[in-house]
Design brief:
alpha/beta; 5 strands
Amino acid sequence: MTDYKENQYDQISYDLGNILGKFGLTLSIAESCSGGLISHRITQIPGSSNYFKGGVIAYSNEIKVKILGVHDTVIEKYGAVSAQVANQMAKGALEKFETDISCSVTGIAGPEGGTENKPVGLVYIAVESKSNAVCERFLFSGSRQEIKYQTSTEALNLIYKFVTDNYVK
């Protein structure tokens, strides 16, 4: 792979691409509040087609259900912004794209849409493989663009950590 260190924005994408390539792992993404930014950052790296199979922007609940297989009863019970939905989105992407690892994000980028229980900036990020899964809750702050950027950065970091924790011996 080409040495691609154009700026800090791409550093985690570059590092993630290297480790996925090193272990021959494939990746898929299911994005909601990040609106495709994670996939964009991954595909900024030359050679990303060797490990990135694709992604889906499941912005509406309808697409979460129809494309990713999220159960509508889970959305009704926990809300679209929940660990339960993030986990089902990741599982759906893993199965749909037939990858080794998937990542999903769901959250509230703002500036509207937040509540006392689910404020603007609340994001759940899930990473899953056939044998392991993790989901983390984040509360970001700033503008809509800043929340989307923070979400994409933490998603890439979480995927990287997931690979090092589960595949590096």
